[in-house]
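Input:
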Amino acid sequence: MGFVDYVQAIIDGLLFGTTYSLIGIGFTLVFGVMHKINMSYAAASLAGAYCGLIGPQMLGLPPWSVFPLSIVAAGVIGYVIYLTCFRFIPLASPLATLMSTVGMLLLVDEIVVHATAGMPQNYPAIYDGDPIELGPFILRADLVGVFLICVVAMAVLLALLYRTRLGMATRAVAQQPVAAQLCGMRLQAVNGLTFVVAGLLGGVAGAMIGASVGMLSPLIAGTITVKGLIVTVIGGLGSIPGAIVAGLLVGAAENLFQAVRNVTERDIYVMLLLFAFLVLRPGGLFAAARGRD
Amino acid sequence: MRRTGLLLSSALVAVIGLCGTAAAQERAVIIKGFGAKSGVVRSFGINSEAAMRAAADAINSQGGVKLGDGTIGKIDVEFLDDRCTAEEGISVVRRIAAGPALVAIGPGCSNVAEPLFGVLQRKAGDASDSGLQFPIFTDVAIKGGLAKISEWAFRNVPSEIDMYNALFTWLKTKNPELKTIFAGVEENFAHSRASWYAVMKEAAPKVGLEVKGEAKWLLEDTNFAQQVREIKAASPDILAIAAHPFTTCGVLKEMRRQGVKVKLLVGLTSSSSMETLQGCAREAEGIVIPTSFAPVTKEAEAAAAQAAKFNGSLDLHSAAAYENIFILKKVIEEQGVLAKPDTVQADREKIRKGLAALKETDGLLGKSKRTEDREAVKPYMYVHAKDGKWAVLFNPLTN
Amino acid sequence: MDFYYSLAQIIGFHALLGLSAYVVLLTGQVSLAQAGFFAIGAYVAAMFTVLAGWHLVPAMLAAGLAAAAMACIVGFPALRVRGLMLVIATLAFGEAVRLFFFNFDYQVAKGEVKVGPLGGEGFRQIRWFPEHGWTGLDVMLFVWTVVALVAGALWWLDRSRFGAVLRAVGEDELAAQSVGLNLTAVKVTAMTIGGFIAGLGGAIYAHYTTHIEHSNFGVLLATFAIAYPILGGLRNVLGTIVAVIFVQGFLVEGLRFLGDWRNLLFGALIVLAMNLRPNGLIDAATARRLARLFGREARRA
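Output:
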């Protein structure tokens, strides 16, 4: 393996890391607003992507219809998760929502398994042409597209958070839920909407994961959940740009370890690096200023 | 408190309910199936269950099983889910063994079979070994050499060593221009690993194929850019993919993206199922896989139609489940099994002896040999993916 | 009957896993490393009984100590992180342990076969129980003796001054520190005790299944470890044991008669349980009622 190979490995990893970034943004958004973690997020995003397949497989719609359908479906699932796992559980029990969303993760995964008998499902790519060649390096064109979508999603999200009334309400609730309520904001409505927005974003993530892998399988829900959580904490809890950078970093790091060592040892180094990183820099890359605990 | 009470009492009811479920009916011959019906391997469980029910239905409608005292027994099949985990597999079999079942067919996953066989008594009749004394006749779990763990364990799964040896020999005579082979291996799946390192990698040099190495990935990997680049660098004539459908498809798709082509693709025997075609029919076009089942004989066609009636499809795994029921029928009749409530343990011992004594069994494709260490040598053929379907490429039985 | 003995064994080693997370949770730390300690216990104990031919009891103690030592070492750096960061840091550590065993080969020839852990192929034939003629009942009694000893010790610990210290740290670190408690000592001790208990559980697990491989000790198992005390409630050790019975006895085995619905209901019932009892199946109020039921005066809540 020469220098070119290592650089190529990093490029591959960076590009694929964008899918991790997308999932990370969703985790971090919910955490930023509710200071709680939604463990079922990645599984629900993939479930949204699965729902998108109903279009071409059952309704005879063209292949591109999976993308809008996935996004809408994931938004709906996001709201259902809010209702079942957060709405009726007291805010003071963070462990209870951790567990309820774990239960939801298992449920969502099993529903997908029942619907598909666990078989992998073909998923259309966003672009199916030749890869881009840059000197000795090759870039997967569809992943470049996914990266652009990821950046657009972030821009839309930030605009939503900082330029709209909903965004202002969301941030107010995130910072001071009691004060926000005193100002007449409806806490439950804002929280519910946050889940819908995060869900829509999850739909984008799920569809892009399906498109870049080329398939959906219940196998990936676990991996994506772990990767998403890792990205969220490395980026700094609640930091959206942090999640994007962290996703790329994680993707690049794992591919580099795989190139330098081998695939069976790859994840050991990723995990040890993560452990060391968290211990040395407990706030993550872009830690938001610490508010309440 | 009332809620807790309700929860606790319903838990109690359910736990107590465990014992009373299967009270022995008169002269039912109870055979239990078990395997995964949850998680990614759910399709295996569904197909095995359908195959067993179809076989039992066929036997019962043709007059049932003749028991040792002349009465007619009807085969009663029930299938339990083990979620493909060791603990649940052991638990399920202990539950089955505690009931009136004479024998169990399963499991689907090798990682259940291996611990499960360890729980069984190692040598039958060894009083110093308090392991479970219950015959298991495996249909799906295929990882090499497992039945030797216990004398109560039997398998009717294809021998990969024979299949790949023969496949490579045939390929080499048919296409002498094929010179080199490279592999892709799913490193964290014991069966896939064994299929390459212990089977194909050994078989290839014997027919003069040069082994150029292997690319490795994990069962749940999603990004194969690097591995495909390794394949490209090796530029082999044959690429053998020892992996399950999800990553097999992932690699094939990445090969198409990078424009990497090989002269011939060879797949893992477990991938000759609907899963691969469901995931990547276009990219898998042409992949050659040795398998122990395809609907090529009259019996096989009829069996496949039967299984379809029970909402399952017959493939190399579930076909074994179908055959097992028929093999067990024969063993029960030969050994004079009584299937009475008070002869359960004696009947199990008889079935164990009967299975161990078999030298040859009838299968859907023809006769299978039984080996000393309780494994099968099954007839096989080569199939390839053609226009989104599996088609028989070569059948050594008819040629 | 053998089936129920077997089920009781499963509940037993899962109870140990849950109790190991319970101790750590008392100090407010959610640790996903417990499956890693469980794996260390499983491999160490199995290597002592299979490769070195030890009796199970010393092998279990060695397994517990090895896991405890590892937990102690991890405890120090892990102290620096809190909340979700700690969850992920411990998850990373637990996964690293699992992946270590994925790459770990140590085989010894025994007769005509080689035994010992072999990376991705796993470690087979850990048959100490059947080889020594133990029946299901014997094994169950042994397992539950261990569980009773551990649960009893934790019960006593809960009521001692040290238990109050653990809970004080769990409730409010800052306040605990300001009354002069040594956070480092308390948290590391809890982690070490948790590691020891998980090690014992892992040792039993390995001898129950007779074959272990790295994939048995993944994130799912780690999640279950913390699920038991959370589902059961942190009021006392009984909560954890009740939760294990709820999950393993009811959700996994008890609902089997529902066939295909069982695996769907598994997650759904966990969601429902958390909605109905956010503080666990046995929360403070239930604990008081239970105490009254046993004719004792309700303790100070």
